[in-house]
Each structure stands twice: as structure tokens, then as C-alpha cells.
Amino acid sequence: MKGLILKDIYGIRITQKTYILLFLFLCIFGYIMKSPGYVGVMCIVVFATSILSLFNADQYYHWDTYAASLPLGKKTVVRARYLLVIVMSVGIALFTAVITGITAALLDADVAKEIFSSVSACIIIPIYSGIIIPVIYKLGVEKGRVVFVMLFLAPTIVMLLIKDIIQGTRMESALIGLLQNPNGKMIIVGMALAVSILVLAVSYVISVKIYSRKEF
After folding, report:
1. What is the domain count for the chain?
2. What's the DSSP call for residue 120?
């Protein structure tokens, strides 16, 4: 299990210089845009891209065929990938907190508020991963890329539709009041965290079933 996780981490380290330069660019851009939260959002995008890169590398080097010859159960291979998602989600959240805090301090913004918003956004990572991983196991990396793009477009479209539907209604006033209330924000974050855990758990079960039926 440890070896499988390290394999993926080493795979990411191959392109670590690219990621470091990208993160530095995001910090500078976030400062110029006077938006510390921008860094957190883009970190999520970078993470999602790295997950796709791992699957792409597995396909290119025929890793699944090689893994099938090792004394590893298919369930173990899938579990290692999901544990990596959890570890990286925590790592990205901590990194985002530090970078957002520094950017907010430089901009004389509310550091605690900006960090809370950015770290809360990282809850989306397990949800996105929980959706995209079974799709890749089932349909492959190329079709997974299409779903990846759709996952980033869909929330924007849905939010715009909801905004148009509830605009001027009591629901809009109630939602604004909830978002402005610190306790309300905690409730929303708590619910989102619960959903992310549920999505990842269900996704893991589905991925194990899909991967177990594959022949390499």
C-alpha cells in the first residue's frame, strides 16, 4: 500500500518544478487581482489536473498490466489511489491556507476570513475526485478528460440557473442571510464536508467493482 502511494507521489514529483512555478504565478496573480481566495480555487484545478496526469502515466506505461502480475489485489490498487486523494486533499488545504494567508496579509485583508474561504473550497476536491476516478476506470483517460471539463462547467451553469430562479424570492434573502452569518457558513461547510466524505466512499465502492472486473 505504502509503495503504491509513493509511486504516485514520485510520479507527481517529476513535474514538481512546473507545479512550483505555477503556484508562484498564482500567488503573484492573486496579489495583482487583490483576490487571496483566487489562489485556493486555482489550487483545486491544479490538483484535479495532477490526478488526470497520474492516470495518463499509468496508461502510457501500462501500469495496470504490470500491477496485475504483482502480489497485489485489485482492491489494494484502487484503495491506494483513494488514500492518495485524501492525503493530497489535506496537503493542498494546508498549502492553500499558508499561501492565502500570506496573500491576504500583504493585501491587508481579513486573513482568517480568506483562509476559511479558501480551505473550505478544498472540500470540493474529494467530490471532484469521487466523480472522475470511477469514470476513468470505466471509460479511460480520454473520455475522463471530457467529464473533467464538464465538472468545472456544470457548477457554474447550475449556479447561474439557481440565481435566476430564486432572484427576488424569500429563498434568496434566506440564503444571503445564511451566508452572512458565521454559524450559517459553518453549517454549509459541515454539510459540504459530509457530502464529500459520502461521495468519496460511494465512489471507492464503485471503482473497486469496475476495476475488479477488468482484465489486463
Report:
1. 1
2. H
